[in-house]
TrEMBL record:
InterPro entries assigned: DNA_helicase_UvrD-like_C (IPR014017), DNA_helicase_UvrD/REP (IPR000212), P-loop_NTPase (IPR027417), UvrD-like_ATP-bd (IPR014016)
The keyword DNA-binding appears for this protein: no
Hydrolase found in the keyword field: yes
Coiled-coil zones: none
Listed name of the protein: DNA 3'-5' helicase
PANTHER family linked: DNA 3'-5' HELICASE, UVRD / RECB / PCRA DNA HELICASE FAMILY MEMBER
UniProt cross-references to Pfam families, sorted A to Z: UvrD-helicase, UvrD_C
E.C. number: 5.6.2.4
Length: 581
């Protein structure tokens, strides 16, 4: 099928599968919202009961699109793919297969991140079919008691994920992750081979408690659709149109589910940009977007950039060679700058240039992004304290503390609905109304005491929770775990919590995807990251991540790097102002 060039104002025909490819700022989201309105106006198949499903990647994008849809929002189900599958497939039907997987459906309550803890590893290994085959130097005790082995084992199991082999979903681990950065060795391949025969045994330790990790939602969703095809019929009857934004970040299992839906009746449309595929750790790849086709699919592309100034689009066009964007705002703009020196000085320089306008700092990783915030300005700890918490503490107490921390974090961002949802999962109260009321009261207590526990030992925060929220939590006995709570502070641990921070000052690049800001400061942690501008190669994910960061800027773009050699500075001169700060 030929590719048809369109603009973000053009309407297309609604009864055929489609794919829209376009670079950053082309107006994909804008176009999608228009297209949904177009379907609502034109469709003869919707009626009053049927809805359009609109899938996007993050909860923040869900909110943005819902707001933009305005009064028509009740005719459209906007959600993440996980949210969609959880509500439309798992909630009504997981009981059909729960027994087969040892899942306690009565305890199911949403889906969470996965953190490996020593307690879970111990439980898994003790019941493992190959327990007696574990050999020196990786016996059960050596794995669980020697810190280097345990760290390696934890890192390896943290990589547990699902893969799609073309017809079924399988559980896998990434053996490379058993070798920790800086360590010369980790657990050996023979041990990994023996342990990996029972990955499902590990998953079942969570399932028996009704606990789902995000990936499990896709796993069970796919299993249900294959085993009970009538569910597909129900979904197709309810959702005759299915559109997916940011499709380049869709994993192969999600694609398989979408193809099942598209086989009859439901019209599927996908929108994306292969150069903005930055979630390979969730199984997504640029090639999957390029090769995605459905029968009789129409392919469209948009070549404008309606977001950025001409000088920023020049930078984007240098990094990317497969398309050349036209800067349709036609505003020349300031020359982007590379600020050479400390991050602090770079930030001061940006402030001096932008006056009172807001500035957003974009960083590669969460901990750096959070350390750039005013709120949590403690030094970055060397270890992941959240992993340490799950490792040292029992899972009930660790989960309660982390949910309360998340609630505080969300509350500070004025995201009260989400904060209350976190706390509702902590409150033991069968009555829904009462549970919500209590969660609300708890949130007020936590936020009113914030200044007191913010920089204090985590122990103080725990005491507050035990006193006011969950008196049933067990007392912290003297020893390892109490020491941990006494020796780390709340504001150190919270650096590791990821709530997709809606913070006006500082975000990760991954969290900023899809968004746009007038003034952007991109922080490079390592000097060599500048290579993405000297020898750009968008087949490398790290270069795509930078491309996403640069393309968020509407008016001013700054890049902070500690050192820059003369030759590199010379090469960058045509596109950037090089400023020593
Ligand atoms: N037809 C249009 N008329 C007016 N403004 C538009 C139009 N299309 C897009 N825009 C504006 O251009 C900017 C970029 O649009 P949008 O966020 O939809 O791009 P996108 O392709 O989804 O970007 P990205 O992939 O980088 O997230 C937004 O500020 C949007 O409001």
């Amino acid at each position: 099928m030929p590719v048809i060039a369109i603009s973000s104002d053009d309407l297309i025909q609604i009864e055929q599968h489609f794919k829209v490819s376009a670079g950053p700022g082309a107006g994909k989201t804008h176009w999608l919202v228009n297209h949904i309105a177009h379907i609502l106006r034109e469709s003869k198949r919707l009626g009053s009961y049927r809805k359009i499903a609109c899938i996007t990647y993050t909860n923040i994008a869900v909110e943005t699109i819902s707001k933009r849809l305005n009064s028509t929002a009740d005719r459209v189900e906007v959600s993440t793919i996980h949210g969609f599958i959880y509500h439309n497939i798992l909630k009504p039907y997981l009981s059909f297969i729960a027994h087969e997987y040892g899942f306690d459906i009565r305890k199911m309550d949403g889906h969470d991140d996965h953190f490996v803890s020593r307690a879970k590893l111990k439980e898994w290994i003790d019941a493992h079919p190959n327990l007696s085959k574990l050999k020196h130097p990786f016996t059960r005790n050596q794995l669980l008691r020697l810190p280097a082995n345990l760290d390696s084992l934890k890192s390896w199991m943290q990589s547990i994920h699902y893969t799609f082999n073309g017809s079924d979903v399988e559980i896998a681990v990434d053996n490379k992750r058993a070798f920790l950065a800086g360590a010369s060795s980790g657990i050996n391949k023979a041990t990994m081979d023996k342990l990996s025969v029972d990955l499902i045994g590990y998953k079942k330790l969570y399932w028996v408690k009704g606990r789902l990790h995000h990936d499990d939602v896709l796993f069970f969703g796919y299993k249900l659709l294959i085993k009970y095809p009538f569910i597909l019929k129900v979904l197709r009857a309810r959702f005759p149109y299915f559109v997916i934004d940011e499709f380049q970040d869709t994993s192969p299992i999600q694609t398989a589910i979408i193809k099942l839906l598209a086989a009859e009746e439901t019209i599927v449309g996908v929108i994306g940009d292969k150069a903005q595929s930055i979630f390979s750790f969730q199984g997504a790849s640029p090639a999957d977007f390029s090769s995605f086709t459905l029968p009789n699919q129409n392919n469209y592309e948009i070549n404008d950039n309606r977001r950025s100034t001409n000088r920023i689009v020049d930078v984007l066009n240098t990094v990317r060679t497969d398309i050349r964007q036209k800067p349709s705002r036609a505003v020349p703009g300031d020359k982007p700058s590379i600020l050479v020196g400390t991050r602090k000085n770079a930030f001061a320089h940006v402030k001096s240039q932008c006056g009172n306008e807001p500035i957003i700092t974009l960083s590669r990783d969460n901990v750096m992004a959070r350390s750039m915030m005013k709120e949590y300005n403690s030094a970055i700890p060397a270890r992941n304290l959240l992993s340490d918490l799950f490792d040292k503490d029992n899972s009930k107490r660790a989960n309660t503390v982390v949910r309360c921390m998340k609630a505080v974090d969300l509350g500070l961002q004025n995201r009260f609905k989400e904060a209350i949802r976190e706390l509702e999962r902590v409150v033991v109260e069968p009555n829904r109304e009462l549970r919500r009321k209590k969660a609300f009261q708890h949130l007020s207590i936590l936020l009113s005491q914030y200044q007191l526990f913010k920089s204090a030992p985590l122990y103080d925060f725990y005491t507050l929770i035990k006193t006011h929220i969950d008196p049933g939590l067990t007392k912290l006995a003297n020893g390892n775990i109490k020491n941990f709570y006494e020796n780390v502070s709340f504001d150190q641990v919270i650096l590791f919590i990821d709530t997709n921070v809606e913070n006006p000052e500082s975000k990760t690049i991954h969290a900023a995807k899809g968004d746009e800001f007038n003034n952007v400061l991109v922080v490079f942690t390592k000097d060599k990251e500048i290579n993405c501008l000297i020898t750009p190669d968008l087949t490398q994910e790290e270069h795509r991540v930078k491309y996403v960061a640069f393309s968020r800027a509407k008016s001013r773009l700054f890049i902070s790097v500690e050192n820059l050699d003369k030759a590199t500075a010379h090469k960058l001169n045509p596109l950037f102002e090089i400023i020593n700060v």
